[in-house]
Amino acid sequence: MTALWTAVPLLFGLALLAYLAGGALTAVGEVRERCAQQIVPASAPLDHMDGGFLPLHWTCVFEDGTTYEGVPSWTNPVVFGALGGIVVCVVASLVMDRRFRRSVGKSPT
Asked: What's CA 40's distance to the chain center, in Å?
């Protein structure tokens, strides 16, 4: 059970690190600049940008309908995978604790 609780801050740190790294690699202004100057592969001028912070995404949409995603593809799966891992660890630890308390005759609190 202790190992499960130890994993929680580690997984949270991983999620935070991945989110910050993905955000730093994206740097919204840089993505807009790269798209506007057609540094990224594009066959038409930039139409608009679509973006958000949860899930982290910054997408350049060009006039011909093509898109360019500025956020690295690994960012959101790592963030949400780590957050899902936290939920699994907490639930598993609570279930194991409840079973242990029942097996020794103490009522769970």
From this structure: 24
